[in-house]
């Protein structure tokens, strides 16, 4: 099923320029054809095209269905990599697997201090449609580590840290229906001071396995484990 994106549904019942071009010029949809749309806020819509214009494809909504695939929030906070392509890959795959929020952390060992969200948001929208999901994750601007960890309300709060003597695996801390937040550090990992600070605010140090993972790989492993619950 091919999905289109219109975040202002049901108030606005037409596709934007890019989506209209794809619908009418590429897929050659015509008036009377049925299309499927997501609003990025948890709803699928079935709609009928009324004006098949490649500049402004208009439609009327025929039915709406709410996505009820999960009832708890999955939040990952990750330090962006120096290579932006790797972070784009992470966002794309995390959205495909399923995640509700992605925050970006500026840590002591972070190599990238500035991050523009525009391209990442486009990657997220594309991945949402491709994986037939109705929820577009919230992408947050990069934030310094200390203020971020102070006021996090998640019921399960973990910090992934490369410590081969730590027997606590992230999968063993997860519980169904519990809002979860996990922190993923930069290539140089979190500093010992950052780990201690996170623990002082209720985060628990966890392992993602015996392998030393790259930042984006660790992020995907964590998202996958959250979705297994």
TrEMBL record:
Q: Name the Pfam families on file.
A: Methyltrans_RNA, PUA_4
**What InterPro entries is this protein classified in?**
Alpha/beta_knot_MTases, PUA-like_sf, RsmE, RsmE_MTase_dom, RsmE_PUA-like, tRNA_m1G_MTases_N
Keywords, sorted A to Z = Cytoplasm, Methyltransferase, rRNA processing, S-adenosyl-L-methionine, Transferase
EC identifiers of the protein: 2.1.1.193
Where in or outside the cell is it found? Cytoplasm
Q: Which reaction does it catalyse?
A: uridine(1498) in 16S rRNA + S-adenosyl-L-methionine = N(3)-methyluridine(1498) in 16S rRNA + S-adenosyl-L-homocysteine + H(+)
Q: Which residues form the Ribosomal RNA small subunit methyltransferase E methyltransferase domain?
A: 72-226
Q: Listed GO molecular functions?
A: methyltransferase activity
Which top EC class is given? transferase
Q: Where is the Ribosomal RNA small subunit methyltransferase E PUA-like domain?
A: 18-61
Q: Which NCBIfam families match?
A: PRK11713.6-1, RsmE family RNA methyltransferase
PANTHER family hit by this protein: 16S RRNA (URACIL(1498)-N(3))-METHYLTRANSFERASE (PTHR30027:SF3), RIBOSOMAL RNA SMALL SUBUNIT METHYLTRANSFERASE E (PTHR30027)
- What is the purpose of this protein? Specifically methylates the N3 position of the uracil ring of uridine 1498 (m3U1498) in 16S rRNA. Acts on the fully assembled 30S ribosomal subunit.
Name-wise, this protein is: Ribosomal RNA small subunit methyltransferase E
